[in-house]
């Protein structure tokens, strides 16, 4: 660590880290242990019955060809091989990864910047109520708005033309569409993650920042040495949430198709839209087997990423 | 906060950062204004001049959406369902998260991860098995059934989200309570839970937002119009446009009806989060 | 704790899977016990407040007054089959639904849960002595509701696709329609020369772009030709001259700049709206377009439809792309008898006329007066040969249609690939697709 680490932060952070739980021994700790099952079990049972058990059924379905009713035909791993050979699945999966990592980087950078700026901003409570707002708006509205903004003679291109750009880009042309969609997702998500991170940052005792200021730390140093370590757990949670939400994204893309009876262009599909389509395409026999297989793959990936993130975050937290 | 360096840093931030934040904020406000303005315009004007303010206030949009979409009873259903879900979610998830994050049980880490993985389960991957099991139990086409389903599917997020908050609370208070002879459950309900208040409120808010707009489960599990929720009413209203005339004015009015309560809730609870912060972090 | 949980979870999952398996096999559902015929449940594709709903609602009242059969109706909207689907293998939640063939085929025919309604054709129509349902519904409409040799959908309303335009902008077109595509192309060229966009298309909706290739193929080789090519698992049919020529027709439209500016980079309904305000000449679309665009169309817009000009198709009538809304009875419906009576009742002239007036659409009886905006559609359907939208390809080869055909067709209609490349790639990718599909 370089010199500018404020003493206060250095002193507090390690002591509060993970002392919870393990520290106490004796009768009190035993009492506490007794709370574990009654506290966890109700939530867990509900979760297991309504999500885990159906997932087991889903894994079972993924080994069959099934139209949603009628007989199930055992096909083994065929759904999986078919899916991986399908160029559309590869495109969809690529889009998902692009959103997950590319979109994620931008979203988190923006969220951190906003969090830091909002901390000392006059009128912050107003600002922060407002940045969350896009989350409340149904995806459908945002898709309509995005159309008006980005289409060939939309607001953006009108603005570009008025400053002398005769041939502004075709934002909604097939090859650009997914990037424009990502922009929408980033806009919606930034407010969401900023809000969560802010809630954590709010709990950081102000005196740490004051000590920091006394030590002459600049904004970046305060962020690096106070904000980041003290909201690390919550940032970890946000990373996991982002991973999962990115993997599940499809509503906005579906809404971008604009017509109730048609699917959007395959170049904008994500893995979860792929799964959705195999069951809810406007025409065609539903392929529950494929949808289930795609869900299983998604889940496996989520599982790996979640474990990875948690491991990564834990190690980082111990570092300083 | 009175030293010169803070002031200097603050000034730099204000000069560079503030415009950025306010631009972002302004964009969001304009979107809200745009929705509200559109909800009072005629369909023709929305499409031909999307950015203009309404020439006259067409309140009939709201009337049409409210009547044709059956928004009244749907709003009541949504209100009760969403409120009930948020309450049940917090009551179940808060103790679970506390236990998982602070009681030091050996299985806690794995169990937390297991909950987290549940977040990745898409609704369309599980609805059929759920339907097959819930139908014979009379839980289909039944708001109680949907409530149970919403609460259960909220668990992964709620538990995962709250464990983070409980984990970052100072341990000293718990230890002090133990020294004072408080029982562990007293410690939880009276000391730790109030401390996690900002987290709980944020959770309630996110939970409400999630379910206020939830369409998929509601679509599959609710059959009668009398039981339909607000998103279903909006969806039904929207689908009418496919064959019977694009009523964008009515659509935006319907959207405003769906969105405004949430905006209100956010403004109200958003302030509470900040209060929770000041109370929670002590001096 | 962990292991116990895992075991418990596994057990629950297994129970779920078992329940599922049982249910899937038809299991303990009781099967189709016949009801008492005094009531029936109807789930509708229409929502409360729609004109179609108002018409049907009035008809239901009449029906109950006349027969004493109570109809419990739920106005479910377009997702009606999605809601019905989970109940189809047990006791269906509705005895009667309505929807179009593509949806019925995919959700019900594929699982054997749609009843054959051929018998209803022999039902007498109440109040019209001597006439049966089969007598009043033209055979060519019935054909649009058949699948696997069964009458799974009994059409009551028809929509047709064609080139829509404002009658005021093209006077005389109705009286003297172009005899074929080349003649019509002259009209388009004149428009282009006059500085107006001849055609409108929202190319971001893949199906709308696909209308063009589909209509050119069928317009040149007749109904069934597109289906035949799509059914070919080697893909080579796409390289035959007739299909390549259809692709060339589409490519030429894109190349010559006949589509309104921005058609390849806008969001539906931007270009459709341009058309409705007189900024483009023709829009290839279904007959719902009149109702759909009315709220924002230029005032006085005179909705006219030109059937897609033939490009040398064999046979007498011009092929007309069409779809129907029709009655569907689940195979295991409790009250299927009552449902059948209700269907027959609705084909009565009075009911059909009331529906046509309310919904401003075409109904499945030719002796009904139609709304002015639908006059051309009615004529096209009467004189031409209706065939299913996209020649039925989108429902019979749905996955291929979305994943293989759509991307290429969008590229073709937006001028991103040549006709030759399109045909070449379509052939190759289709062969690949079918190889994967096994």
From TrEMBL, chain A:
**TM segments?**
39-63, 97-118, 130-149, 180-201, 226-245, 288-309
Q: Topology in the membrane?
A: Multi-pass membrane protein
Which SUPFAM superfamilies would you find in this protein's record?
A: MetI-like (SSF161098)
Compartment(s) of residence: Cell membrane
User: From what superkingdom does this record's organism come?
Assistant: Bacteria
Q: Report if keyword Transport is assigned.
A: yes
Recorded hits in InterPro entries, A to Z, give:
MetI-like (IPR000515), MetI-like_sf (IPR035906), UgpAE/MalFG_permease (IPR050809)
Ranges for domain ABC transmembrane type-1 come to: 93-309
What keywords are annotated for this sequence in UniProt? Cell membrane, Membrane, Transmembrane, Transmembrane helix, Transport
Give the CDD domains listed for this entry.
Answer: TM_PBP2
Assign the protein's first listed, main location to one coarse class. membrane
Q: Which PANTHER family match?
A: BLL4140 PROTEIN
Family designation: Belongs to the binding-protein-dependent transport system permease family.
Q: What is this protein called?
A: Raffinose/stachyose/melibiose transport system permease protein
- What is the organism of origin for this protein? Streptomyces clavifer
| Lineage of the species this protein comes from | Bacteria, Bacillati, Actinomycetota, Actinomycetes, Kitasatosporales
UniProtKB/TrEMBL annotation, chain B:
Where in or outside the cell? Cell membrane
Origin superkingdom? Bacteria
Fetch the InterPro entries from UniProt. Answer: MetI-like, MetI-like_sf
Task: Locate the transmembrane regions by residue number.
Answer: 15-37, 79-100, 112-132, 144-166, 187-209, 248-269
User: Could you tell me the keywords of this UniProt record?
Assistant: Cell membrane, Membrane, Sugar transport, Transmembrane, Transmembrane helix, Transport
- Recorded topology in the membrane: Multi-pass membrane protein
- What family does this chain come from, according to its entry? Belongs to the binding-protein-dependent transport system permease family.
List, alphabetically, the PANTHER family matched.
Answer: ABC TRANSPORTER PERMEASE PROTEIN MG189-RELATED, ABC TRANSPORTER PERMEASE PROTEIN MG189-RELATED-RELATED
This protein's name: Multiple sugar transport system permease protein/N-acetylglucosamine transport system permease protein
Taxonomy of origin reads: Bacteria, Bacillati, Actinomycetota, Actinomycetes, Kitasatosporales
From TrEMBL, chain C:
Pfam families recorded for this chain? SBP_bac_1
Asked if Membrane is a keyword of the record, the answer is yes
InterPro entries per the UniProt record, alphabetical: Bact_solute-bd_prot1 (IPR050490), SBP (IPR006059)
| Leader peptide range in chain numbering | 1-23
Alphabetical UniProt keywords:
Cell membrane, Lipoprotein, Membrane, Palmitate, Signal
Respond yes or no to whether keyword Hydrolase is given for this record: no
PANTHER family cross-referenced by the UniProt entry: ARABINOSE-BINDING PROTEIN-RELATED, POLYGALACTURONAN_RHAMNOGALACTURONAN-BINDING PROTEIN YTCQ
The identity of this protein, by name, is: Raffinose/stachyose/melibiose transport system substrate-binding protein
Annotated source species: Streptomyces clavifer
């Amino acid at each position: 660590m370089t010199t500018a680490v404020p003493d206060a932060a250095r002193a507090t952070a390690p002591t509060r880290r993970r002392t919870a739980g393990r520290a106490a021994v004796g009768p009190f700790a035993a009492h506490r242990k007794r709370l574990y099952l009654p506290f966890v079990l109700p939530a867990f049972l509900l979760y297991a019955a309504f999500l885990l058990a159906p997932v087991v059924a889903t894994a079972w379905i993924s080994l069959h060809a099934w139209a949603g009713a009628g007989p199930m035909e055992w096909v083994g791993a065929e759904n999986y091989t078919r899916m991986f050979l399908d160029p559309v699945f590869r495109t969809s999966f690529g889009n998902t990864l692009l959103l997950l990592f590319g979109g994620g980087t931008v979203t988190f950078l923006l969220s951190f910047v906003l969090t830091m700026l909002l901390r000392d901003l006059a009128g912050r409570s107003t600002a922060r109520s407002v940045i969350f707002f896009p989350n409340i708006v149904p995806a459908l509205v945002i898709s309509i708005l995005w159309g008006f903004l980005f289409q060939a003679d939309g607001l953006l291109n009108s603005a570009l033309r008025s400053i002398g750009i005769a041939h502004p880009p075709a934002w909604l042309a097939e090859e650009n569409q997914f990037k424009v969609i990502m922009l929408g997702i980033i806009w919606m998500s930034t407010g969401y993650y900023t809000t969560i991170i802010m809630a954590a940052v709010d709990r950081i005792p102000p005196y740490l920042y004051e000590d920091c200021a006394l030590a002459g730390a600049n904004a970046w140093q305060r962020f690096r040495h106070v904000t980041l370590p003290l909201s690390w757990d919550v940032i970890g949670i946000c990373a996991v949430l982002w991973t999962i939400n990115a993997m599940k994204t499809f509503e906005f893309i579906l809404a971008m198709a604009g017509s109730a009876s048609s699917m959007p262009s395959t170049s904008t599909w994500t893995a979860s839209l792929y799964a959705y389509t195999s069951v809810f395409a406007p025409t065609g026999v539903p392929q529950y087997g494929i949808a289930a297989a795609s869900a299983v793959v998604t889940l496996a990936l989520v599982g790996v990423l979640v474990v990875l993130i948690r491991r990564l975050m834990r190690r980082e937290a111990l570092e300083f | 906060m009175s030293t010169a360096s803070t002031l200097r840093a603050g000034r730099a931030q204000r000069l560079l950062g503030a415009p950025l934040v306010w631009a972002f904020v302004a964009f969001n406000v304009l979107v809200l204004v745009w929705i509200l303005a559109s909800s009072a315009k005629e369909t023709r004007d929305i499409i031909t001049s999307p950015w203009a303010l309404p020439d006259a206030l067409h309140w009939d949009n709201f009337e049409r959406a409210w009547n044709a979409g059956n928004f009244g009873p749907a709003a009541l259903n949504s209100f009760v369902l969403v409120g009930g879900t948020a309450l049940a979610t917090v009551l179940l998830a808060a103790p679970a998260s506390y236990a998982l994050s602070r009681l030091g049980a050996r299985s806690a880490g794995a169990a937390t991860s297991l909950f987290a993985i549940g977040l990745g389960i898409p609704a369309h991957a599980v609805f059929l098995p759920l339907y097959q099991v819930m139908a014979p139990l009379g839980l289909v086409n039944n708001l109680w059934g949907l409530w149970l389903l919403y609460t259960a599917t909220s668990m992964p997020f709620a538990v995962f989200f709250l464990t983070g908050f409980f984990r970052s609370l100072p341990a000293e208070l718990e230890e002090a309570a133990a020294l004072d002879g408080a029982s562990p459950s007293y410690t939880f309900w009276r000391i730790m839970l109030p401390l996690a208040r900002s987290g709980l409120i944020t959770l309630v808010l996110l939970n409400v937002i999630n379910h206020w707009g939830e369409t998929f489960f509601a679509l599959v599990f609710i059959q009668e119009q009398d039981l339909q929720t607000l998103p279903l009413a909006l969806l039904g209203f929207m689908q009418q446009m496919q064959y019977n005339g694009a009523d964008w004015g009515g659509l935006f009015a319907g959207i405003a009806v769906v969105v405004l309560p949430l905006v209100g809730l956010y403004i109200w609870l958003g302030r509470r989060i900040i209060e929770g912060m000041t109370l929670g972090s002590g001096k | 704790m962990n292991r116990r949980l895992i075991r418990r979870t596994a057990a629950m999952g297994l129970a779920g899977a078992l329940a599922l398996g049982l249910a899937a096999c038809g299991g303990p559902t009781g099967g189709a016990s016949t009801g008492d015929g005094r009531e029936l449940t109807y789930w509708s594709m229409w929502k409360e407040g729609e004109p179609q709903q108002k018409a049907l609602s009035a008809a239901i009242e009449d029906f109950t007054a006349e027969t004493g059969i109570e109809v419990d109706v739920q106005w479910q909207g377009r997702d009606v089959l999605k809601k019905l689907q989970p109940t189809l293998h047990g006791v269906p939640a509705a005895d009667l639904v309505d929807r179009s063939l593509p949806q019925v085929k995919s959700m019900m025919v594929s699982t054997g849960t749609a009843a054959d309604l051929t018998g209803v054709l022999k039902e007498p129509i109440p109040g019209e002595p001597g006439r049966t349902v089969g007598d009043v519904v033209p055979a060519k409409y019935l054909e649009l509701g058949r699948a696997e040799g069964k009458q799974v959908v009994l059409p009551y309303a028809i929509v047709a696709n064609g080139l829509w335009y404002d009658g005021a902008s093209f006077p005389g077109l109705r009286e003297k329609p172009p005899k074929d595509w080349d003649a019509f192309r002259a009209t388009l060229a004149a428009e282009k020369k006059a500085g107006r966009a001849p055609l409108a298309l929202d190319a971001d909706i893949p199906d709308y772009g696909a209308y063009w290739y589909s209509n050119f193929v069928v317009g040149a080789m007749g109904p069934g030709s597109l289906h035949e090519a799509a059914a070919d698992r080697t893909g080579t049919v796409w390289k035959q001259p007739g299909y390549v020529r259809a692709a060339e027709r589409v490519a030429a439209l894109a190349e010559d700049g006949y589509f309104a500016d921005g058609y390849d980079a806008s969001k539906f309904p931007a270009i459709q709206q341009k058309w409705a305000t007189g900024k483009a000449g023709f829009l290839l679309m279904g007959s719902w377009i009149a109702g759909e665009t009315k709220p924002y169309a230029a005032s006085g817009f005179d909705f006219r439809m030109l059937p897609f000009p033939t490009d040398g198709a064999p046979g007498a009538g011009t092929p007309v792309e069409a779809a129907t809304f029709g009655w569907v009875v689940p195979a295991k419906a409790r009250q299927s008898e009552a449902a059948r009576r209700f269907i027959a009742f609705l084909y009565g002239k009075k009911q059909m006329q009331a529906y046509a007036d309310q919904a401003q659409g075409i109904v499945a009886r030719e002796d009904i007066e139609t709304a002015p905006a639908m006059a051309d559609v009615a004529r096209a359907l009467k004189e031409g040969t209706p065939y299913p939208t996209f020649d039925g390809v989108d429902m019979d080869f749905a996955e291929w249609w979305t994943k293989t055909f759509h991307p290429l067709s969008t590229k073709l209609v937006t001028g991103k690939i040549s006709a030759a490349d399109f045909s070449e790639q379509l052939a190759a990718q289709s062969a690949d697709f079918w190889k994967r599909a096994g």
